[in-house]
Amino acid sequence: MDLKTRIRVALGIEEETTQLAYEGKLADGTIIVSEADALAEGVAVNVLVEDGTQIPLPVGEYELEDGTKFVVEEEGVIASMETEAEEEEDDMGKKKEEEYEEELTEEYYWFAGLNDARQDAMIDLSFNLGQTRLRGFVKALEAMSREQFDIAADEFMDSKWAKQVGMRAIRVTEMIRSGEYI
Questions:
Q1: CATH class of 85-178
Q2: What is the distance between the alpha carbons of residues 56 and 46, in angstroms, rounded to a whole number?
Q3: 64-94 CB burial, b ≥16 within 10 A, e <16
Q4: Each residue's pLDDT expressed in tens, for the chain with a length of 182 residues
């Protein structure tokens, strides 16, 4: 916000507006928001109250609807995010790789024609994102269907998911791009 706007807000002439880049739901249905693009350690996070106001998220352990877990140790600030690796082994045991492969085969006619490395990359994406969120990558999936793997990899990398999972995104997208295990 520029100086002129800050002064107008301070004098009560203008209301302060906040651009929210992230909005999500906790497992209990509570809506949370942040000015950051994605949740991460050190990011400020607030509860969006029914009247549109925001209050800092209280200290505690939380889980998003997608299963991502995080801890708030100082009111309104994320102290830690549970890494994917910590949960991956347990979650993969609940839903076997074959089930993910079956879902992908049913959903995408082109999946069966991919080589093993690309299929495993898609299984990883399906496991990590869930089918509903994976469907949101429309451009990447269209590129996959046309065997434009460089474009597909770039589209997956240009996302909040890639920022959230870091090196995992690089590994998975390079498998898509090259067709080889990384």
A1: mainly alpha
A2: 4
A3: eeeebebebeeebebeebeebeeeeeeeeee
A4: 566 766 776 677 766 555 667 888 998 889 998 888 888 888 899 998 888 788 999 998 998 888 888 999 899 999 988 755 455 555 555 557 888 899 999 999 999 999 999 999 999 999 888 888 999 999 999 999 999 999 999 999 999 989 888 898 999 999 999 999 98
